[in-house]
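Hey L., structure's done. Input below.
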Amino acid sequence: MKLPKFNGLKPVKCDDCGHSADFIRKIFSIGNVKNDKHCDDEVQGIISSHIRKSYGIAYVFFKTSNGKFYADSACCPKCQSTRIVFDIELTDDFLRQASKLTGKSVEELQRGIKVTAERIKKINEVRLH
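Output:
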């Protein structure tokens, strides 16, 4: 499936073994959910529970694209875990689009992202100690 929204959020790391490449994606098309309920926590919880029980998939992420509702997941090829962490892929195209929306240059956005990432890293280090 080549939908733009599915390319922006991608699997980056297995929460169980730490593997960080070549994940197997599993995308479920979800029907019979009204558009205004796609972001509803209760609805997503019910769907997550069903997918976990039926397919053994621990983590799913919900997306709406072109009016259709999906649950996105991944599997680790190394340990077969479905506890996969997803993150936004900061492609050049993504940064250009963000630049247009914010009025900041791509370089400004990259600097801001780097500063924020460092700040979060320091906060996490303090919490661990």
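The chain has four helices and five strands. The chain has two domains: 1-88, 90-129.

-- N.
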